Structure formats: structure tokens, C-alpha cells
Model the fold of this input.
Amino acid sequence: MDPIISIKGLSKSYASGFEALKSVDLDIRRGEIFALLGPNGAGKTTLINIVCGIVNASAGTVHADGHDIVRDYRAARAKIGLVPQELSTDAFESVLATLKFSRGLFGKAPDPAHLERVLRALSLWDKRNNKIMTLSGGMKRRVLIAKALSHEPQILFLDEPTAGVDVELRRDMWQMVRELRTSGVTIILTTHYIEEAEEMADRIGVINKGELILVEDKNVLMRKLGKKQLTLQLQTPLAAIPPSLGGLPLELADDGNALVYTFDTQSEQTGIAALLRQLSEQGIDFKDLHSSESSLEEIFVSLVHGGSKGARA
Done:
């Protein structure tokens, strides 16, 4: 299946010499939720703004559902909805009026039933006649999403969609995004809340200093780059790891009261049985043990600080 967004050799440089993007190649699959992660200033918003026609690229091409975003701008932009980071709304307009205006900008015929569906899905129908300036920050964020959906786009960009909203509203918005994907909309989101990407995304892209350093299916990424650890709470604290265990990936923790064993999630043999046997031979007893594995946040931090090129998918 052809990608719904195809980005080839995309670069953006400014007169100062700063390179915001460096030859980015990325294909977004139709119907997926794709999370773009990166620290502040990494190039996430620049990439989104180029695809949405807000910023001009210095080099490269972008196609949205087969339409070149420069040569066939109107057709490409009609496929895309954008929810920006900033809460910029028509403060003195009513909620429904601003949706009607947004739909009209794309040359779409009036469709009151569609706008009602959007507003009801976002719990805004009761606020449809309210001026936007009277709404809370969370409600204004919902209005931005409603505006982006007013012209029935096939691609939806969410740039930090839940920044500054409470946990309950964030969960509601996650559910709404899943329902949009079920209806066939492709979702691309950037987020500072890495649990948001871990909860929702099908694939993860990591961008740093303008370079796309990794694109991978979320589950494959966590399996490949994640670590599993077995923590054993010791009966008697150790001052140091015995020399006979020195070749094992062991660390002392909790002031010598715990041993932490790191093992490869990809290996058929974890080495845990051999470890427990060796501990018994050394007379090291433990009273409790539990295992844990890396979160997406830990993987993200290691990738950004490592800066190495990762796998592409």
C-alpha cells in the first residue's frame, strides 16, 4: 500500500545558517497512529509546518495522499487537518461559527450534521453557541481539534495535543484519537508525554537536532532496545559483588541490599537459572525478586543522548 505521506530529502536551513531539518526521509502509513518524539528544538514542529504548507522547505519533496504539497497545494492541504501547539482561536466567535468558517475555507459545502457529530464527539455540542473566549483552556484545545476536523481530512497532525490539559481530559482525547483512527483517519502526533506515545502509537519516530535517528514499530522498538532487569532483595547486604560473579551483568543497589541483573530480551537463554544456581553456590540468599522492563521514556532518553542512527521500518 502506498504511504499516505511521503517525505524525501526534506531539509530546512535559515539565513543564520541554522539547520532545523537535515535530509529527512519518512513514509507515514495509511491509517496508522505515528508518534514523532524529540527534545525541544529537535525539528518536530518545523517538519509538521512544512507538510502543512506553513513553512517552506529548503530542499526535498512531500506528497500528501499522492499530491505534491507545493505543486498541488490546495488538494494536498485539503487532505490535512492541523491542531497546533498554540491556543490561537477566534476569541470573539462562537464555537459553531468558527467551525463553519474553517470548513468554508476549504471550499466544502455546508454540512451541519458533520459539524454536530464532531462537536458531540468532543463534548462541545452544549457549548456550540458560546464565544470561544469564555471557554476553559481544555475546551479551547477541543475547539482546535474540532476546527481541524471540520473539513473531513484524511490526515490529522496533533502538535502537543494534550499540553496543559488535566489527566482526565487527556484520557478522553486519547479515546477520541483512537476512534478517529478506527474511522480511517491517519494520525501524526508530537508529544512531551512519552506515555502518550507508548499508550497510543503504532510506530515511533525519534528526531534530534534536525535528523530522524530512528523509525520503528513501537512494539519492535521496545523489544529491540528495551532492557529487562531482575532485582533480587538480599537476606544479607553485600559490600561488593563476589569476584566469581564479576563476569555477569550485575549491579549492587539499595546500599548493597539488592542485586540487579540485566538480561537480553532477544536471547532465548536469559541466564537467570544459571545466575540463581551461582548465587546458591556462593551462599547468597534472597528474600524477594521481581522483574521489570524499560519504558519507552528510557529508550527515548538513551537514543537522544546516544545520538546513533537506528533501524528504519
The chain has a mean pLDDT of 86. The radius of gyration is 24 Å. The longest helix spans residues 167-182. The chain has two domains: 5-223, 227-293.
